[in-house]
Write a structure and sequence with these properties.
Strand order of the largest sheet: 1-2
Shape: rod-shaped
Strand content: 15-25%
Number of strands: 2
Number of helices: 1
Radius of gyration: 22 Å
Helix content: 55-70%
Largest sheet: 2 strands, antiparallel
């Protein structure tokens, strides 16, 4: 019986780790890049320093 409980804790810990990593990757992908940003659109060229 204790072996089953250890496996359950291992699975729950692994799921928590995976959710944390996916959340961090989503946060990292959504944050604004730093530095110089150049946009070319119908209004012309816009250069912004961030």
């Amino acid at each position: 019986m204790p072996a089953n409980r250890n496996v359950l804790y291992l699975v729950i810990g692994g799921l928590i780790l995976i959710v944390g990593l996916l959340g961090y990757k989503l946060y990292d992908a959504k944050k604004q890049p730093e530095g110089l940003q150049i946009n070319v659109g119908p209004d012309g060229v816009k250069i912004q320093n961030k």
